[in-house]
Amino acid sequence: MQKIKAIRGMNDVLPQEALRWQYLEQISASLLARWGYQELRFPVLENTALFKRSIGEVTDIVEKEMYTFEDRNGDSLTLRPEGTACAVRAAEEHGLLYNQTHKLWYRGPMYRHERPQKGRYRQFHQLGVECFGYSGVDIELELIQFCQRLWQELSLNDHITLQINTLGAAKDRAEFGKALHAYLMPVKDQLDEDSKRRMDSNVLRILDSKDPSTQHLLQAAPVMGDFINPRDQAQFDELKASLYELGIAYIVNPALVRGLDYYNGLVFEFVTDKLGAQATVCAGGRYDQLAVKMGATATPAVGFAMGLERLLLLMQEVDVFPEALQRTADVYVAVVGGSSNRRVLALVEKWRDKLPNLRFLTHCGGGKYNSQMKKAFTAGARAAVIFDVDGTQEEVRVRLLEGIADTKTISVEKVVTWLLENLQ
Question: Which neighbouring-strand residues pair with 282?
Fold first, then answer.
């Protein structure tokens, strides 16, 4: 019988790796709470029309990458490929947009059918932040500042660079698109195949091309900055001045346009040179007209999303995970001479109540002393408490596992005191 394996591009997270996920999730969730952001949760499945209307029907995501199917009622449903459209849909549906301000965040799996490679998967996870009802530079600064603080807490500041650009209003982007199209038409045959296809569907995406020959052709192309209206240009200039005052380094990247149709004004990316082609670890911008596409009133909005797999890859690449992540228990409770009995389990439960900051791992199933100690070291435990089922039930052996230490015998009543003295 053929073994059933995971779907290509959809990965299992094994226990040791899960500790790294938990570390990243706990730090980011704690930071978001400290900044006053509230969590939003929305379904994995949405109506397909949501993404066609918001992302744009001529984007790669909608044209080639979405997991879309008809359910038993004949409705077209799609596994969410990104979170911003879902957040706007949820906020509009539940009355959070009109004449209100909200700072929201979400976290979870997204789905895109593309060629799996390191840092790019068919099921991937994002942490996103969306702010509704805020116009002006201050909220944009806060989001960038938040990301900088997160990189600092993850010890990644030296490995991530901020890139920014402005797309102006929709009509600015349209005028730039016409100029870029006119510039590229005479050399269309020299473009890479993806760029040829984008000429008549989404010409701005050609700026994202990684093909060297296409990038060479773009060197003398029109630039977005020449088409920005005075109001948006002034706001962008204010943002740059504020970043300078806050000591946040940045690079203006005129080719930064983002791959989604709903952006206007500020767009930004945090990139790294440690992950090869998958350089972007966080990206976002302003999308003031997205609510209108949902049938709602225009609402100022800005946000970002970061790929958790890529962040974890970067953290592993530059080796910033704390050594404590190798430890799955603080105290290993061994039972020699028989299987774990009810009395041992009851005692350990009392110790957990009295020492809530320590993690107790109780051995189950019996086995030799050396075998159990090997498992204690594998778990990274700092101490072991050893019960001898065949001996007295009033005493146990205790042993520190860090460094060289002797095993000593103490009464059961003194275990909590011993652990407090040696581990806390």
Answer: 270, 306
